[in-house]
Design goal:
Elements (H helix, E strand, L loop, with lengths): L2 E4 L3 H12 L4 E4 L4 H7 L15 E4 L2 H5 L3 E4 L3 H10 L1 H4 L4 E3 L12 H8 L5 E5 L4 H5 L4 E6 L3 H11 L4 E6 L2 H23 L4 H21 L4 H4 L2 H12 L4 H10 L13 H16 L4 H10 L5 H9 L7
Parallel strand pairs: 1-2, 1-4, 2-3, 4-5, 5-6, 7-8
Antiparallel strand pairs: 6-7
Helix pairs in contact: 4-6, 9-10, 9-12, 9-13, 9-14, 9-15, 10-12, 14-15, 15-16
The protein binds 1,4-dihydronicotinamide adenine dinucleotide and 1,3-dihydroxyacetonephosphate (13P).
1,3-dihydroxyacetonephosphate (13P) binds next to helix 9, helix 12 and helix 13.
Keywords: Cytoplasm, Lipid biosynthesis, Lipid metabolism, NAD, NADP, Nucleotide-binding, Oxidoreductase, Phospholipid biosynthesis, Phospholipid metabolism
Function: Catalyzes the reduction of the glycolytic intermediate dihydroxyacetone phosphate (DHAP) to sn-glycerol 3-phosphate (G3P), the key precursor for phospholipid synthesis.
EC number: 1.1.1.94
Length: about 325
C-alpha cells in the first residue's frame, strides 16, 4: 500500500524515509523546496543528513501525494486545519493519520477532532509517541502509538506503518493518545526552564511527576483511559521530551530561563507554547487544576518572571499525592 506524507518538516521527512526504506512507495509533499529535495535526495533544510531511499519521491503537487492509499498529515498542530480545509476534497476518501502533537487554539480540539470537523467522511487515526525525527530517519529503534477508534482500520494501519525499526502499538483511545502527546510538550517547556535556571535534576523529576499528574487529570476529565497516559504516547514521550536537549520544547524552556525567549515564540516549531494556552483554557472550563501549565502560560505571556512562577508552584498548599 502506498503512503502519502503531507508536510515535509523533520517528522514527515523522517517517516517518509523509514517507510520508503522498508519498501513502501512513499510520496512526500512539500509546500516549498520539493524539487531541490528530489534532486538532492535529502531535506537539507528540515532534516539534513539522512538520504532519501529509492522508493521516496518528493513533490510540490499535493494531488500526487494525496493519490496514495494512506495519508500522513505531518504539519504543526496549528497548521492542520488550514491545510485540511484548503485540500479537503483531496483528503476526503482515504485514511488520514494525523502526526501532529498539540491542542488547537480557539477550539481546544486535538488533531482527530480537527479532522472530524473538516473532513468528517475520512477515516482517521493519530500517530504519536516518543521519537525524535533524526532517530527515526537514522533507523534507530523507535516505538510509537497508533490510535484509531475503528479497530479494523487501526490494525491495518499498524501493519502498514510498522517497519523493522519503527514499532507501532495500537490503541482505540484516541483522546488519551493525543492528549499525552500534546500535554507532555508543555511539561517539557517547564522542565527545560527549571534546568536552565539551575534548579537541578530533582526539581525536574518533581515537575515531570506532578506534570504527569495534571496530564492525567485533564485526560481523564475528557474520557481518556489512565493506561493510555501511562503508555508510549504519555509517560514515554514525557520522559523523552523532558530529559533531552534534542527536544525543541525543552530547549525553548531552557531559553526562557536564560531570558532568550521570554514572551516570544520560537522560530522553530515549539508545539508546547500554543498548546499550553489552549490546554489551560480547556482546563479552566472543565474545572481541572493544571498549575504547571498555568505557570508556563503566565511566563509565556510575560505576566510572571520565571522565578515568580517557580515560587508560585512551590507555595501551593501542601496536600496528599
Ligand atoms: N521533529 C520531531 O522529532 C517530531 C515531531 N512531531 C510532531 O510533528 C509535527 C510537525 O513537526 P516537525 O516536522 O518537527 O516540524 P518542522 O518545524 O520540522 O516542520 C514543519 C513543516 O510544516 C510545514 N508547514 C507548515 N504549515 C504548512 C501548511 N499549511 N501546509 C503545508 N506545510 C506546512 C513547514 O513548511 C515545515 O516543513 C509537530 O506537531 C511535532 O510535534 C512528532 C514527533 C517527532
Ligand atoms: O515529540 C517529540 C519527541 O517525541 C519531539 O519533541 P520536540 O517537538 O520538543 O522537538
Amino acid at each position: 500500500m502506498s503512503v502519502g506524507v503531507l508536510g515535509a518538516g523533520a517528522f514527515g521527512t523522517a517517516l517518509a524515509i523509514v517507510l520508503a526504506g522498508a519498501g513502501r512507495p512513499v510520496t512526500l509533499w512539500a509546500r516549498e523546496g520539493a524539487d531541490e529535495m528530489q534532486a538532492a535526495r535529502e531535506n537539507a533544510r528540515r532534516l539534513p543528513g539522512p538520504r532519501f531511499p529509492e522508493g521516496l519521491r518528493a513533490t510540490g503537487d499535493l494531488s500526487e501525494a494525496a493519490a496514495a492509499g494512506t495519508l500522513l498529515l505531518a504539519v504543526p498542530m496549528q497548521r492542520l486545519r488550514p491545510l485540511a480545509e484548503r485540500h479537503a476534497a483531496a483528503l476526503a476518501d482515504r485514511p488520514l493519520v494525523a502526526c501532529c502533537k498539540g491542542v488547537e487554539l480557539g477550539t481546544t480540539l486535538g488533531p482527530a477532532g480537527v479532522l472530524a470537523e473538516v473532513v468528517p467522511e475520512a477515516p482517521r487515526a493519530v500517530l504519536t509517541g516518543p521519537s525524535f525525527a533524526a532517530d527515526i530517519a537514522a533507523g534507530l529503534p523507535t516505538a510509537l502509538t497508533l490510535a484509531c477508534a475503528e479497530p479494523d482500520l487501526g490494525a491495518r494501519l499498524q501493519a502498514q506503518l510498522s517497519t523493522p525499526t519503527l514499532r507501532l502499538y495500537r490503541t482505540e483511545d484516541v483522546t488519551g493518545a493525543e492528549l499525552g502527546g500534546a500535554l507532555k510538550n508543555v511539561i517539557a517547556i517547564a522542565c527545560g526552564a527549571a534546568m536552565g535556571a539551575g534548579l537541578g535534576a530533582s526539581a525536574r523529576a518533581a515537575l515531570m511527576t506532578r506534570g504527569f499528574a495534571e496530564m492525567n487529570r485533564m485526560a481523564q476529565a475528557l474520557g481518556a483511559a489512565p493506561a493510555t497516559l501511562a503508555g508510549l504516547s504519555g509517560f514515554g514521550d514525557l520522559v523523552l521530551t523532558c530529559t533531552s536537549e534534542g527536544s525543541r520544547n525543552y530547549r525553548f524552556g531552557m531559553g526562557l530561563a536564560e531570558s532568550r525567549a521570554q514572551g516570544t515564540e520560537a522560530a522553530e516549531t515549539v508545539e508546547g507554547a500554543a498548546t499550553a494556552r489552549a490546554a489551560a483554557e480547556r482546563a479552566r472550563r472543565l474545572g481541572v487544576e493544571m498549575p504547571i501549565t498555568e505557570a508556563v502560560v503566565a511566563v509565556l505571556d510575560g505576566r510572571m518572571a520565571l522565578n515568580e512562577a517557580m515560587e508560585t508552584l512551590l507555595a501551593r498548599p501542601l496536600r496528599e499525592e
